[in-house]
Amino acid sequence: MIRKRRSATGLGALLALLAAGLAFPAGAVADETTADAPKVNLVLDVSGSMRARDIDGQSRMAAAKQAFNEVLDATPEEVRLGIRTLGADYPGDDRRTGCKDTAQLYPVGPLDRTEAKAAVATLTPTGWTPIGPALLEAADDLDGGTGSKRIVLISDGEDTCAPLDPCEVAREIAAKGIGLTIDTLGLVPNTKLRQQLSCIAEATGGTYTSVEHTDELAEKVNQLVERAANPVVTPVAVEGAARCAKAPTLKSGLYTDRQEFGQERWYRVDVAPGQELRASVSVAADRAVNPDYGVLLRAVTEHGREIVRGEAAGNGRTDVISTGLRYPRPDSDDDEAPAETVCLRVTNSFSAASGVKTTPGMPLELTVDVVEGPSQADDVASFGLGRGWWLLGVLVLTGFLAGMVWGWLSRWRVAVWRTN
Amino acid sequence: MWITRVVSVALLTLGLAAGPAAADSTPSASPSEDGAAPTSAGTSFRTAAEIDQGRTATASASAGDYLYWSFPADTGQRPTVRATVRLPEAHAAQTWQIDVYDGLRRRQACQYGAQTRTAAAGTASVELACVLRTVRSWSEPWANDPLPGTYYLRLTAVGVRTADLGQPVTAEVRVESKEIGGSAAVDGRLAKPLVPGIAVTSQRDEDTSETSAVLSGIEPDDGWSSGWWSDRWVWTASGAVLAALAGIGGYALTRGSGRPPRVPPNA
Fold it and tell me: Hey, what domains does chain A have and what are their CATH numbers?
């Protein structure tokens, strides 16, 4: 009965939490994705080098156009697709003008296939390769809405507009918005291009693919557009504090934050008696880091006593390092027992490789689940039951001996009875 | 008396046979048709492609991608993860690795299997395997024993030269489990399996019936086990029966015919 009543109060608390979550956007409703459609922006390099005829005997531009036609045909209905070009308009030699040359060919929105195809058909390879500026503009095109956002960059040459490093631009973009991923496709097997494009992809959790055939290009872009269409939980942005006292209080949900090298992040979670806190954290290496790293997640009481910790260390190439912890709070006899505030402290031991900027911080993902607590174990074995031949042997032997003793006893009793 | 003895011997053999037989009779993830297996992989914990045990999932990707899948593992199972990566014709030596994480994103150790393997230059494929520890129904919060719930599988090239980055590869993964049975049955159990986002999911189920994205909506084909059944019940019960029979046997042996030997037959 007590258990029943407690779960009823728990339900009340949950509803209250939900109401609070609706009042504050950063609350428990961390995953409303259906409200907004996924958005994809295809960014195509139309620089002069796209004239080169080295993809299946046709020019890179022709291959890209053919692939785009296939992609436009296969794009799922719910995806809002846009196309942006870079280096499409300015044929001259002035670097400053050339590096601003990026234009929206087809706006991000409901797709009109014929119109989009007609727009793609007009493209002719022309100018410079301003990848950085194009990415910035492309991110602006995708602004608004809570659906997943994806930029697909197709290029055949590295950025010609230094000192704006497109890799850092990508990191800045990722730090600004939530759920924006940049996938890159390289049309030329060239080491510098490879390094730059894979750096852009890694900065945002995207992928880099080297393409050498038309069908590969179409297939890959299709795959990426479909990936964008898959419904995914959107994390809620939250900013952890440097101390527990000032930390934001989190409910069950998925959260994202940014953490600099060696920075502490604190969050608070309320756990009622008989509930279990499950928290996991992952810190993404979105830039070049030294090969040994780690992450530590500690659950600490308000007074600073450590309850439990999760730790992970790693070595070598990685996208994230993650760990988690579980804290089942024992049931309390007192129905009115207050919820305990558990402070979660996240630290990482990543170190930046030489020459890598340390700001903005690295993406941090935190999941919090407060669920009903586990039933405790009273014994090592399930219900204290036994198993195995030794058990059977002992039981049989004991039973046999007991039977023998019982037999002797009754024999003795019969004998006594008879003699009397 | 011989009738009792025969019956008890028969029961004995029956009881003994029942124990191990019951241990094997628990349903295991049977390899079924590969119809519903996903043909693409996720690129993060959040987007991991969900696969069932006993199905072969495939994905085409690029060298350097981080590929994620998730699968359910229940109490008493010892999952084995196998991955095959088909590499392009020309490439330098590449090192591939699989890592398995539990529902709390804690890395899970492999008992054995080639978790990391280097494919020499020009090799057509590389095969990886990881045998996890047996999933238990309960563990102390300070331990990282595998618990029932979602498991994440990450496949990636940990050592790849820049020249090979982005080259097309195809990956094939398959998760199968061995049922360990009662020997791994421990006491205590979780109220909810270790599925990320389960608190949000169950809360929403109570409120509305709308479907939207969940962090992990994974469940074994026949649901999560309740955790109270194990073959330890059979062993213990058959032990009790045998003990009772042995007791009767012992009694019959020492009780004799009921007539004390000192008393003359015609007394």
Answer: 39-229 (3.40.50.410), 235-372 (2.60.120.380)
